[in-house]
Amino acid sequence: MFAVLLTPEYYKMRLAYTIFVTLLLVLNSCTKDVFEVTILEETGLENASSNEMELFKLINDHRIAIGKNSLVFNSETYIAASEHSAYMVSQGKLSHDNFNLRASKIEKKTKAKNVSENVAKEYVTNEATLEAWLKSPKHKKNIEGNYTHSALSIKQDVEGNYYFTQIFFN
């Protein structure tokens, strides 16, 4: 049987190590939070969910990969996209209902020249949604179009089905 004697130096080193690791974790997590908050404030994403931000990033990653500009997230357009996703949830169906009214409001608020929209329903992952949109010529044209701004909204109905609306403009 072994006996281990723990000296005061051992406890001091253990305490110093614990403090160091704790500070490292706290500083690292705080830095990340501050960085994320700054990005949100600069881009208008403060109202978007993490799921919406993830899909928006995937779309921008695709655009960058094909040599297009990144889309700037627009808060005014986010409201319109969110309202439309909620409308589709309430109707229980995919639609572009009232698109001309949405587009007209966006044009007035943002001075947009062109407005387009992608919608989707029931995809379980953001990757699956993007993949489906890229397989559709009309949706792909919007994603890869000469737009400068966008917003997207994802809403879920009581059965767990997701409804997606992405609005683009320039």
Automatic annotation (TrEMBL):
SUPFAM superfamilies: PR-1-like. It comes from Cellulophaga tyrosinoxydans. Pfam families: CAP (PF00188). It comes from the Bacteria. CDD domains: CAP_bacterial. This is Cysteine-rich secretory protein family protein. InterPro entries: CAP_dom, CAP_sf. Residues 57-168 form the SCP domain.
